[in-house]
Specification:
This protein is an alpha+beta fold. Helices cover 47% and strands 21% of the residues. The strands form 3 sheets. The chain has a 4-stranded mixed sheet. A hairpin with a 2-residue loop joins strand 7 and strand 8. The protein is elongated. The N and C termini lie far apart (87 Å).
């Protein structure tokens, strides 16, 4: 009788070990699934917040335009302050200041003013602020850029520039906007 119990006991131990391993695998898969669902929900939440914030950017532009034109009434100022505070609490950050170096990754050059003695491209006018949520760019700042003339032989607008701009027209005059400036500025060397 003892001989039959030992093999039965060993068989039960083996089955118990198999079921325990199966249970541990299922538990690990469930934990991974739960973590993935949590990550997906966070991603959907972030995308939804970005979409709402992007839709509100024209409102912020209108408020900024009103500020530039005239002093705001106390009531409108209060609404603007609450709007900016609430959007800031969602992670919206405005950027774009005069005097900062031009960065094509976060600035959109609308106009390029050529100054012969300039050392680098600098934002000299902010036409509209740029916005970020965390490290994600929602909209680049639209700027006027002042800087040195484009180097001879650089590619701008699809062709090589020469002394006359490569298109038969005379190149930009010092202190005047360049018609080819924004396209040339968006490209990094």
């Amino acid at each position: 009788m003892d001989d039959r119990i030992q093999p039965r006991s060993a068989e039960l131990r083996r089955l118990l070990d198999e079921r325990t391993a199966d249970l541990q695998r299922v538990k690990a898969e469930y934990d991974n699934y739960r973590k993935q669902v949590r990550r997906d929900r966070m991603a959907v939440r972030e995308i939804a917040a970005e979409n709402v914030l992007r839709a509100l950017l024209p409102v912020l532009d209108a408020v900024e335009g009103a500020r530039r034109q005239e002093a705001m009434t106390p009531g409108l100022q209060a609404v603007a302050d609450v709007l900016q505070a609430q959007l800031g609490s969602l992670g919206l950050n405005a950027f774009g200041e005069e005097g900062e170096p031009f960065d094509p990754a976060c600035h959109e050059a609308v106009t390029h003013v050529v100054v012969a003695d300039a050392e680098r491209l600098t934002c000299t006018g902010i036409l509209s602020l740029g916005y970020r949520v965390g490290d994600r760019l929602l909209r680049p700042a639209r700027v006027t850029v002042t800087g040195p003339p484009p180097a001879a032989g650089t590619v701008a607008g699809g062709g090589a520039e020469t002394e006359h701009g490569g298109d038969g027209r005379a190149g930009p005059r010092e202190g005047r906007p360049s018609p080819r400036g924004p396209a040339a500025l968006r490209r990094r060397p």
